Amino acid sequence: MNNHTISSNLLRIRKERGLSQEQLAEIAGLSRGAYRNLEKARAEPRTGTLKSLALALDVPLKELLSPVRLLERVRFRSLKRLKSRDQVLVDVSRWLADFEDLENVTGEKFDHGLKPLWSTINQKKKRNILAIAAMVRKHFGLSEREPVHDICGLLESMGVKVYSISVANDAFMGLSVSEDDGGPAVIVNTWDRMPVETWIFSAAHELGHLLLHLSAYDVSEIEEDKSQEIEADEFASHFLMPEEVFRKEWEETAGLSLVDRVLKVKRVFRVSWRTVLFRVAQSYPKEKRFLVWQRFNLEYKARKGRSLLKHDEPFGIDKEIYQDPHGIRPLGIEPEGMYPHDFQEDRLSRLVRKAVEEDIISLSRASEILQLPLNQMRELSASWMA
Fold it and tell me: Is 348 exposed, middle or buried (0-12, 13-18, 19+ CB in 10 A)?
């Protein structure tokens, strides 16, 4: 047995479990000194002792005995310090090793498709994120109007490895690994407290990092770079919602309230309502962008009687969408049916808005056409801000 391998595994798993040396020693039936010597690699552990420690830590015995390849070319940053960071890196390292073994034994190892994109992007002196997102979509075989039905399958078709891991911490959305460490790979936190739309956006966000920020892949860096995060967010937004198509969908809903517009468009592109509002706000001067968010939140609260919480996703999509190309289900019952925003006519209301804004008809006449009380019509017109 390799004492140093065992000691590093004990230290990592103990910290991930949130246990002190004294606590773990007590649970495993050891003295604190005896345990400390094992964690410092000063003593040769007995098989029975290792079994007791594995049981106390609730891991298989091999978890204590198996050496782990340390990843270096990784972009793993979070909004706050993550206790399980080392354990996540170990899980990813083992997953990549298993992945590579399977590729070798099955003879299905192939080059990834990001290299041509890297050379093109790096040749540009000034980055146009919108143009880069459009280029990447074309390279991935997506048409201009096609939503991303299956982000996992799309990435894997280009040789990008995708791994879902559940970490009970919403400060961590995902990470990515460069080809130097067995990637390119995208790892997404699919904790069930976070909506599927967040998973999808995180995958696109990490793709953005792989394309734009390879020089920043260093596992020792844990603090987020705000400028790079903004670029990756912008890339993900345009990758998932091409500008021309987004604008067309947005304009076609012009007669609806801001909340209804956002919820309808989010379903079209399978993104979060925040992603839609982010794009809408981008068309405003910086000092006025907050008004879009303020209006949406006020309108939603007035309608539902409460504010949206951090991970609320009204009319969210199903988990199947994360991996299933078309959300196909067998015929029969529809356990999670669609919502009114999936079938909502909007041409009439768009024409009403146009007529009101051009002073062709009054608000009173508009309320008659849309069959709304006048007070609701006034509220609707106030929502026509974008």
Answer: exposed
